[in-house]
Amino acid sequence: MTLKKEDFCNKIIIAKTAEAALEQLQKINFNIIISDYKLPGMSGIDFLSHVKDNYPNSTRILLTAFLTNSVKKEAKNKASVKSIIEKPWNKDNLIKLING
């Protein structure tokens, strides 16, 4: 994984489902949350919307291979995502975005 090769390796939690990620969020305060658009059980936008409502200070980033104007609009309006990154993403741009 791109981020594990960088200086983030001790600061990353990977969850295989939105539910597992929500459990982690109850234990740890994350600054940045990156979600895929397609998740088992709920969409990445729904997940990030829940994150926005419960952890409003987190930075939310959506990854997708299904980027359309409606996805952009929903992600911005419903989940207030900072960025939407289209797959395949550029590793350097992702690192730059995370570093702020």
UniProtKB/TrEMBL annotation:
Keyword Phosphoprotein on entry? yes
Keyword field contains Metal-binding? no
Give a single Pfam family match. Response_reg
Q: Where on the chain is 4-aspartylphosphate found, per UniProt?
A: D36
**Keywords attached to this entry:** Phosphoprotein
Q: Which SMART domains match?
A: REC (SM00448)
Report which superkingdom the organism of origin falls in: Archaea
Domain (Response regulatory): give its ranges: 1-100
**GO BP of this protein:** phosphorelay signal transduction system
Protein name per the record: Response regulator FixJ
